[in-house]
Design brief:
By secondary structure, this protein is of the alpha/beta class. It has one domain: Rossmann fold (3-Layer(aba) Sandwich). About 30% of the residues lie in helices and about 20% in strands. It contains nine helices and eight strands. Strands 1-2-4-3-5-6-7-8 form an eight-stranded mixed beta sheet, with helices on both faces. Strand 3, helix 1 (about 60-70) and strand 4 (about 75-80) form a beta-alpha-beta unit. The longest helix is centred in the middle third of the chain and has 15 residues, at about 90-105. The protein starts with a strand and ends with a helix.
Amino acid sequence: MIYKTVSLDIPYEKAGLDTAGCLAELDMYCAGPYENMLLTKRPAVVICPGGGYEYCSEREAEPVAMRFASYGIQAFVLRYSCVNKRFPTSLLEAAQAVAYVRKNAAELGVDPDKIMICGFSAGGHLAASLAVHWKKDFIANALGEESSLYRPNGAVLCYPVITSGEKRHDGSIVNIAGNDAELRELVSLEKQVTADVPPVFLWHTADDGCVPIENTLMFAAALAEKKISFVCHIFERGAHGLSLCDDSTASGNEHFNPDCARWFNMAVEWIKAR
């Protein structure tokens, strides 16, 4: 197993962004090149933990990566910039993370055509942002390489923040867009879906009391309108921030949810079928 952390090279100043307090690190959890292995190239997932764009939740970081790795999926946790870092700071970091995995695919045992991005809550917003914006000129111009390097082959969105409209998670939107109307439009992702969005796996709980279910429903409707391949699982009950829904990630009884825990195996099957 490969365990290491790399710092991503992000040209913040070139993009006109404040460099103070920026963090862009990628933690790796990858199976090594074992002898006599049938599989030499594996799917990969870049994980964006939640935390309202204020911090990166540990409950949605290493435990999730280790679970994916145990299922034969090379896993990477993106530690991205938070706390009043305006859009597109964290988006450039996510794009560079996917590009890093793709450019180093042979060394990392990764299939470069099966690199997914996965996010939880605000991290789901970050993952979805890359899914909708990867081809935009502002990313390629800032990072300096072909847009295709930044394209995820799929997105796994777990109770994601999506909209900056009425059903928004206010803290997340304020942290990346403030009151800037133009930025708020760009980060309202149900409005940004195009035919270039890769396939999407969504899950949410109907009674989420933090990020309303409408976030997922609006995104699913936008995907359907553009005929983007997607699956969407809505579970009847469950608190926000469930992560893996079991004792490996629970911080209280509300995070034990065997019904919702089914999302993980569903996501693994979906990833491996891409």
